[in-house]
Amino acid sequence: MSRISTLYLLAYNSFQAIGWTISLTKILYNLLVTASIKGTYASAASLICFLQCAAFLEVIHGAIGIVPSGVLLPLMQWGGRTHFVLAIVRKLDELQELPSVFITFLAWSMGEVIRYSHYAFGCLGNCPSWMTYLRYTAFIVLYPLGVGPGEIWAMYQALPVIKEKNLYADSFSSLPFSYYDFLKVLMS
User: Fold this and answer.
1) Least confident residue range of 81-90, 100-109, 127-136, 168-177
2) Sign of the CA dihedral 62, 111, 43, 120?
3) Catalytic: 119?
4) What digits encode the pLDDT tens for the residues 67-78?
5) 12 catalytic per annotation
């Protein structure tokens, strides 16, 4: 890998690590100050939405070959998370204070602080062994936590609201199914 690519990846991964650290700090600060999970979305959502959208660069990184990940897996992760945070949670005020959103944001933030820090250290060629250990063991807990009681639970809770509001009806009007049906299939 060229020196320019390495420096770019160091900057990108450092930027993401710092951004997710700020998100995690906002979530934990809100929890400590209010003694409640309410307010998590309001405190961290704008930054999380921005960082998640910026993560599309990882698809491009794979496409141009500066990382070995390829395109499909980063695209699937980016698409799933971006759909969750922008098309569902951001669109439905009724979901924003639910425990499932708190769990998702907390798991994502913790996981991404670790992952991007690991990648940044890797760009320096000097990743501490404890960071590598943390990267591959914390994932075992954080990934299922973010997906199960986080994303999937929130999407399940969103279904009645989506059906009632006929969410995205205009976007799906020419198709033989609704967004509600799409989400049910996605979750099965």
Assistant:
1) 168-177
2) negative
3) no
4) 999 999 999 999
5) no
